[in-house]
Amino acid sequence: MKLVREMAVHTDDGRFGELADVVIDPFTHQVTHIVVDPGGDHQQLRLVPVWLVTEADEGLQISLPESHVRQLQRALDSDYVRAPAKLVTGAQLLRFKTVLALPHYHDESITKRPDTGDEVPIRSCEIRRSSWVVDRDTHVVGTVVGLLLRDDVVHSVVVRSGAPGHRQNVAVPLSSVESVGSHFVSLRLTSAAFKQLPITQALPAASVHFRPRELWREVLGLPTNKLWDDFEVDARTDPN
What we know:
mainly beta, eight-stranded mixed beta sheet, 4 helices, 18 strands, elongated
């Protein structure tokens, strides 16, 4: 399939919008979804499974009426990480330098530990990238940057923590998660216990990509999800 940025996308009822982005599987690097922009509000970007899409003379065709496409999941850029477009297999991409990938990783050294904690199927995991992470005393200890998987189940949350210039990616087992909100994760651990958790090398700390609007918060040592500012907690970012 040939995918060209800003090419026309049609539904059964006619033109719907244009191709805005592409989502790939982080392990196979094959295209799983396309992101369609119908115009107007940025939050109306729709995530369309690639199996619903075919090539047509005038662009791409989605095998659904427009009313059904508008009910598909919204595509939120903050839920994904960026990957080089040259990694994509099974599709021809034009005018794309980067594509989207879910922040899922493998780390055999963590997976093989005798006690990895609870596990949940990836489709049932509600923890979102960029969520703030707080310890038992509601002190901010970091930001979610990904999930560690074993096959199709999640066993740990990757939390980016530490002072600016000394970031580490901490593997937090799901058994240590107390609750999950729309933009934050609460742990049942103290700050001291959090510091004893293993560091994952699944993604180098320096490889985390920050968009321009998030970068200044990272420099200041603030979790990058600004929506946290609406929550009334002790937002101390220094785990010490």
